[in-house]
Amino acid sequence: MTFLHDTLHFIQQNPLLAISFNIVLLVAAGLIAHLLCKFFIVKVVRKLFFSSHKNSVPLDKDVRISEKLSNFLPVIIVYYLLQFMTDLPQHIVIAITTVCGILFFIYLSLFLNELLEIINNSYAKKTRRKNHSIKGYIQIGKIGVHIVSAIMIVAIMSNKSPVIIISSLGAVAAVLMLVFQHTLLSLVANIQVSSNDVLQLGDWIEMPDNGISGEVIDIALHTITVRNWDNTLSRIPTKNFLTETYTNWQSMFSSGARRIMRSFYLDQQSICFATQEMLQSLSELKLASEPLSALLDGRDISVVSDRWLADEGITNLTIMRKYLTHYLRQRADIHQDMYVVVRALKPAPDGLPIEVYCFSTSTAWIDYENTQGEIFEYIYAILGHFSLRIYQHPAGWDMAQIGTARR
After folding, report:
1. What residue ranges are annotated as transmembrane (predicted)?
2. Handedness of CA 322, 328, 329, 335 (dihedral sign)
3. Positive or negative, the Cα torsion across 179, 182, 183, 184?
4. Which of 34, 97, 226, 271 could make an SS bond with 74 (beta carbons 3.0 to 4.6 A apart)?
């Protein structure tokens, strides 16, 4: 005890040594507080915020929050210990207080940003709306935290009220608007995209002008990330979704049906009035009885003359359209509660386009393509029964046949 008393007396008699001792004491207190917080505060955080989890299972959230708390809590302890050290010169007290204030707001902003990030991750995992993202709002909150922290740090360094700092920003508001114009546009765009639910995570979007077609995997403040179907990534500025045209196919998936709208071209010279011989040939087809009966008003094919068919305006194209419509109505993979239409479009130099318009019951791409392929493969094979021909440009084989005929 005598040695300790003599040591303290000696330190008090030497001002420089007393200042050094107090500074070392503050640094040691800060380090000890940091270590204690880092090792023990995780239990407090778990008990307060994550009590539903088992104590034996370490959580990443516990560690992340504890690390941020262990940074700025020692700063508070050092600041309050400083109030009891009256022997320190005023300029050193002011310097340490300023450093503590700056570190406090830096660490506090990091802690709040970590909380916002945890909220974002928890929302994405627990919400029922798995395709909804609040990442843009979280980033806006982070920007707000950094702005407030920067104002407080400037106020501490200049020893002025934050109100004065904020009021002085009015003079540079125009410059700030110019610097952050893209951020402000992205903020408005993100709010409109998120609030109106025009775009969500997992949506299939297409932007033909930019060559983008794929799934939305991330919605942030400034950019929206799309994984294209060739597994490349595209990042589009959020504001582009207010100024550019894009297609969102998600409503198609929600409806449970996917549209088939494709045309094939007929040689117009193959179109003619139906004949009794053609009807006899068509009657052998499995699905032809019902559409033929409807066209002939129940008449027997054997008593229908070619003249009557011509007078009634029944052509091979008319029968083919009715037959294909009936064929589509019989398919289980075609949605029967939606439009099923086979129609002739405006003639073109490539022939007469016949459009098949219907909806498949499966929205999956592979099933959709299989259904569409089966329909048109059947059409190309069955057209010969109607004395109709597919139009195509002359190919090398055609030229070879012409040459052979001339020889």
Report:
1. 16-41, 69-86, 92-116, 137-157, 163-180
2. negative
3. positive
4. 34
d(CA 208, CA 202): 19
Predicted structure pTM score: 0.52
Cβ-Cβ contacts under 8 Å for 200 (sequence gap 6 or more): 129, 131, 132, 133, 216, 219, 250
pLDDT in tens, 337-379: 889 999 999 998 888 999 999 999 888 888 989 999 999 999 9
CB 117 within 8 A of CB 138: yes
Annotation: CATH topology of 195-250: SH3 type barrels. (2.30.30)
pLDDT tens, position by position, 226-271: 998 888 888 888 777 777 778 887 777 777 788 899 999 999 988 9
Going by C-alpha positions, the residue among 164, 161, 388 that lies closest to residue 282 is 388
For residue 73, count CB atoms less than 10 angstroms from its CB and return exposed for 0-12, middle for 13-18, buried for 19 or more.
Answer: buried
Token pair belonging to 91: 């300029």
Q: Could you give the residue ranges of the DSSP H alpha helices within 257-395?
A: 276-282, 289-295, 306-311, 316-330, 365-382
Give the three-class secondary structure for 261: strand
Dihedrals phi, psi of 353, to nearest 5 degrees: -75, 130
